Amino acid sequence: MKQFYCGQLDKTFVGREITLFGWVHSRRDHGGVIFIDLRDREGIVQVVFQPEDKSLFEKAEKLRNEFVIKVVGYVRERPLGTENKKIYTGEIEVIVKELEILNSCSILPFDISEYTDVSEELRLKYRYLDIRRDAVYKVLKLRSDLLSITRNFFVKNGFLEIETPMLTKSTPEGARDFLVPSRLNKGTFYALPQSPQLFKQILMVGGIDKYFQVVRCFRDEDLRADRQPEFTQIDFEMSFVEQQDVMSITENLLCDIFEYVTGKRIEIPFLRMDYEEAISKYGTDKPDLRYGLEIVNVTSIFLDTQFKVFRSIIDNKGSINVIVIPEGYIFSRQQIDDYISFVQSCGGNGLAWMKYKENKFESNIVKFFSELELNSLKEKLKLVGNEIIFFSAGEHRKSCELLGLVRQRLAKELGLIKDKNEYKFLWIINFPLFEYSDEEKKIVSVHHPFTMPNYKQLDILETKPLEVKSCAYDIVLNGVELGGGSIRIHDLQLQKKIFSLLKISSEDIENRFGFLLDALSFGAPPHGGLAIGFDRMVAILTGNESIRDVISFPKTQKGICMLSGAPSEVDKKQLIELGLMFKDKK
Question: Model pTM greater than 0.85?
Fold first, then answer.
């Protein structure tokens, strides 16, 4: 059994005989002395084979990169002038007296070196080799550490860790379910859970007033950098709480996690911002506050405008919004046209623009505005000279969303994020309870149908449902939705009313949510909770763009495991046992 890791040795071990196991990281033959950098998960140590022991030396000559070996030797200080200050073990070396080659290594598909540029597809196919890299190992080690911190935090605060089923009922929550056919009940299917939502609510009914779980969730949706078909979330629920209680627990957990990684305590409470304010100022409900470029509504300036484009928008109850590129950034006409094309590619009609320099506006649309309008614009935007103004006109939310995308692109291209290690947390609150879906031609839940409406607006729930706010809250970090939650509906009649407003049929309600409604009828306590996207959080803390880089065995953007080849065809016998058959492939 291993007693010491290679990367943990230092001068306190000098004179001791030790046994080490690991992989040959590199081999050097200097003047008849063989030096091996021996590597394990904790780092590298130099081991030395001297020519006096011929049989040992001959065996050492057979060593190649990534051979697995066991060595026994004694630790000594490196000769003066040969120290390696770049590694922890750089002041010592191990003089080997016994060597056992435990396994050889085939020709590597890529070098294990951190500096070798390898395609993602190749790295994922040979993920076990990729994991040997120090950078990948450190990410997986950090995940392990953060999971320990998370569990310790919740246990310390009186929560119980309770597992919920992986094979459950299909209750669509916004994405497609992964379905698992039942062999014992042919023609029926389990679903892999998109979240433990219903079960954690039922635990509250069961009297488990503080639950948490580090849980695997599954969603069959189109993949991108921050999505995987299977992912991990930190999930918790509490009874007899209000919104502030859930937010406070979340803040303290994140403080513990980020202090462990950064060494600094995050200031709490986090900033709170209404959903409507976030959309109006930043064009998104997950704004990045590390830079400015706030959106400004200038509709009031142009209420009497003669510019036909703006006039038409205002008459149709739209708005005129702008974003100002501050002085110091020079844009060519081609760059401006690129942004116009960018907005069109995002579904907008384009952008109007003006430059303000030497106390006057320049643009092909300036001639359509009065001097009063231009002076009012200058005053409202506090222009000093050499700014560029982008205008987006249309339905207010759509106009802001388009400028929000422009804002994000400008931040990247202008390098506005100066400190990559800055963390700006934000709570988004007062979400709408419902929104109208053009696709479904009815109102739908903004979060999910179990979200409690604002208590003060229950009287307009049926008459003005789109005006009702919810008791939902999202935690946002640097433009990423890190997690979200809500106070849940615990009253059976209110839950039925919500289902009715969503036009879910009685049959669907019973088939999909009957077991939850039964539970709510037996004395359900007020409760609420939150889930944090663990993979997203680790990606932010490690500076990775994609969550694939922080998951041990991730899928590609097409949902394929390059290592195992999943998903794959199965034996026809298995399909017959499940009562399934496929149509002929075309």
Answer: yes
